[in-house]
Please model this.
Amino acid sequence: MTELVIHTHSAGEPGLFVNSYLVETPNGVAVVDTNLLVADIEALVARVAAIRKPLIGVFVTHAHPDHFNGVAALVRDRDVPVYATAGVAAAIRRVADAKRAQWGPVYGDQWPADTYYPTVELADAEQVVLDGVTYTAREFGPGESHADSVFLASAPGAAPVAFIGDLAFHGTHSYTADGHGADWLDTLDTLTAELGPGVRLLPGHGAPADVGLLAEQRRYLLHYRELVRRLAGGGTALDEAAKAELEREMTRFQPGPG
Model:
């Protein structure tokens, strides 16, 4: 069995080490997730151009800016469909302006000036075929973000892959601020049951992995939630000393980038 030709474009630390994936087929390139900051987005656009095949589609896995900020630069002056599940598309429309207001002053001209919203909203289990590759959308709702999805990609004779967004981080600390930990754990259980051992996972942060990555993410979340419960001492928020202790404990548990 062969593998799909997939190139990875990864940001550095300022861009949160986020991955964009370029699926190269005989007649085009599809991009899954699109980076955060202008410098990394421009490098992604150049990477697509270097393949010398037309851009045939863009997929966005979830409603965090490090995954949707680069769409506008990729599709500018092109008639290219931008796919997301209906829940993810709605969440991007809700959060994009607020995220720009929050982070634009921090990043200055490195924060893109415009947001390009998905043009094709997919239902759960809906499929799209681009140049012989079938992308199946799975809508999961709140989890790591306010709206998460996975795109399963398959082609005749090729091993299947799953673009899992940030539902599992590989070797880096997880973003937990959106507060849907219980839903996230449920989604991990569902994905583990659905994905067979032959499916390669392509995460939003970190290297490709097998389905065992989902168990590692589950272990991380359970450890994090138990620490927060203990440090909160029955309260609803952590004080500064507890936050510092949480950071120390999670760094011991996962020494990778935070």
Q: What stands out?
A: The first strand starts at residue 2 and ends at 3.
